[in-house]
Predict the structure.
Amino acid sequence: MGEYFLPILMVVALIGGIFTGYPVAFLLAGLGVVFCFLADIPVLFLGTVVSRIFTGTLANWLLLAVPLFVFMGLMLEKSGAAKKLLMSLERLFAGMRGGLAISVAVLGIVMAASTGIIGASVVLLGVLSLPVMLKQKYDKGLASGIICASGTLGILIPPSIMLVLVGDILQISVGDLFMGAMIPGLVLGALYIGYILGVAFLAPHKAPAGVVDVNDKRPLWLALASDLLAPVILIMGVLGSIIAGIATPTEAAAIGAAGTLILAAFSGELTYANVRDSVMETGKTTGMILFVAIGATCFSVIFKRVGGDVMIEDVVTTFASGPYGTLAVVMILIFILGFFLEWIEISYIVLPLFAPIIAGLDFGLDLTRDQQLTWFAILVAINLQTSFLTPPFGYALFYLKGIAPPGLTMGDIYRSIIPFVILQLIGLSLAISFPGLVLWLPKLVTG
Amino acid sequence: QRALDVASTFPKGMVYLGEGAENMAKLLEDVSGGKLKMKVHGAGDLVPALEVFNAVSSGAVPAGWDWIGYWGGTVPVTGLMGAMPFGPDPEVFLGWMWEGGGLEILQKAYDKYNVQVFPCHLTAPEAGGWFNKEINKPEDFQGLKMRISGLGGKVINKLGASSQLIAGGEIYVALERGRIEATEFSLPIIDKSLGFQNVTKYYYFPGWHQPSSWNSLLINQDVWKKYSELEQKQFWAACKANVVWSMAVAPGAQGKVLDEFRAKGVKVQRFPEPVLAALRKASAEVLQEEAKNDPIFKEALDSLNAYMKVAGNWMELQSLQTK
Amino acid sequence: MSSMTMLERIGHALMHVSAWPGRVSSWLVLPIILAVLVAVTGTMMRLGDLFGWGFAIPLLGSHLSITGLAELQWHLFAVMVMLGASFALAEDRHVRVDFIYAKFQGRGKAVVDIIGDLVLLLPFCAIVAWLSLNFVGLAYRSGEQSDYGGLTDRYLVKAILPIGLALLFTAGLGRIIRNVGFLLSGRQAAEPGPNGASHG
Ligand code: NA
Ligand code: NA
């Protein structure tokens, strides 16, 4: 137990520190430095942090999509296009309880198919729909929960950076992973929608029916068609430019951002004040989001250096028994790690350790080695997607807090996410019980 | 003695390339009777793959494992040492590196950065790349959007191609969607794991941009100096033994994978001769331009060309193949 | 403002000064969008090199290629991130898990921040900034540049690391001074910050 003293102390310090309310980014970064001294590691070793910040965050072309999608979301809000669409959707769902939340979930799935950046999806969905949902007297928890959960689908439904990285680490086909994640991703989306319908039925005050906007004299079909036009063109532009092979997902984010500027121009909202406000907000939000990543990279390199990775490996080998028992221990461990660590770190720590163990197990499913690993990888991916939602350290929750109105506290957001984490676990159990959910599509496509 | 922490540029379990460092660790333990140990950390574990050289140089990590060509942006000569377009085959490259003066030139370039280099892994020719259109003549490179790294990229640009910088993680999507029309990566067994065979029609050979390539162990010189003379010799012995391993295990595995690709409908074929001739000419131009910019690059290029010529005298006489 | 002590004024001033570069760099999101659009259009037109001018200038070298334009995008992004951090700090926008913190009184919040900034933020900024000097120096001495025929002078973008961390250090120092000044003032609640953000 003595050899685990430092890694355990590090985790305890992190949890304790988080609850003092000190900024998470600086807590992570600072604890890395403090434990470097406590563990008597040569200070030069912190040079790894310099490299990790530069290449992992600053020179990471994939993360460029973060400010672009943030800006897109903000300008979309300023252009009024999103608000108009949501108002028309309100009218469409006027008689239907929970209708607005369902449209958020659907929009989340569409966004997920166009980007693999969670921060961007959560921010865009949040900026668009949170104020409207709160105005409609939605339950705060249901509103923020559905935004966070649908926003995180982006990292599971392809295109997804996470699947690319997992495929790379496990040395299995990324194409198969993309196919394999499709159905589980949609199943999760369906679970969210089912939950909203359930809440709307059992507790109507939490998911009220929309109020018809009396000011709008247009017929509903015309209002919907014209209000849908702009956002649909925009989403088609982003998605379409990827599908047509014009742009990478990152580049598509810029196309979307430029598109919102044009939208704003058409609606007469392209004023200096609007652009300046969006730009300033984008700058702050970018610094905030990416510094959490920077802090996490400092924390985790020291965590591993003091033996955190060995501790984790030992836990699994001690508690695992039988194929499903081993799988369960690995899944529970990833779930728990997901409370504190970032998905990239978990992937790098856990996957190389456990891939050979999992590959060697016989689940009695008559799978090839590659198929078994693909299945395992998707289970891990669902689990890692969940890590964005689990307190205390869940990126999606932080992103939402970043753009939420002052009335919504971190505590509200933490409470809001519990039902959705349970839905995630149901989805994960389904994928474990029915490997066909994962493996059917890859088999169909690649034979 | 704490095991030497080695930051690799490859994922730990990566077939062949990642295994190279693990095998070297095992050999080192064998020749030192268990006294010298290396702990290999996969790409990104301690530092991101492309930061390994900087990290070893600054002492942030004591040692690294790399493809030498990754450092072309920092140490130009490594662009040549990693792999020379239309350069030597593995046998000749081995001779030049260990007995023909190559290692001395490389070490001279690395001395400035406080890094000791051990070329310990010689990779067989790589694939020429995955293409979504057929390459029949040099003009087919005109406007081709290809993801290709290092000197190879500069060569195809000479033929009018648009070499693309695509983050490793985005290659698959970019290729699938046509954002790029071609990409190179590595040996067939490694390319397979990235799934390119599912989204491309043609797999071209030979790997003209990397007829053979070196991976190496890097050790910070302050760390290296602390080893005793005997220990240093043990490092060199393990390194050379690892080169033999790397040459021995590569060829067998590739053919089987190629058959799998063919079964999937991928056309596995060679570049036509006129295309290779054009690439060869462009490569010579690029190499000359690089030599003009960096004296050590020039020294290495002249030395390697001279060695290839001398060795060629002998190899051609002995060749059992008629060209 | 009138009831602020001298220390609080100095602290505010430091925070304000270190946030200023981040305010300016926020505008970089617009050139990033433009760079992507030009690169995408150029690629559609199957261009490699966009144009050249025959002599070397810092960062761009002697020509601008599609690859160079792609690299310029993350160069600008790096500046946004590193300078944005102190901007976010000055406006108290770094994420806090605040459901206990929110219950603290102004003085309790100030104490948490003073301890955190002193023990966690300042050491991190100082040490990593110091180590990054070598990182920048190496890039400068080796003339490190793109290995894909893109941009030159990689040390320029690497220099944003120590610069950003130094600004963040200054912002953190400013916040410590401001909070100490507030504790010494004997008031119960902090004055609103220079940018309208009150403490917590
Ligand atoms: Na996605
Ligand atoms: Na979490």
User: Anything to note?
Assistant: Chain A touches chain B through 49 residues (CB under 8 Å). Residues 273 and 279 of chain A are 10 Å apart (CA to CA).
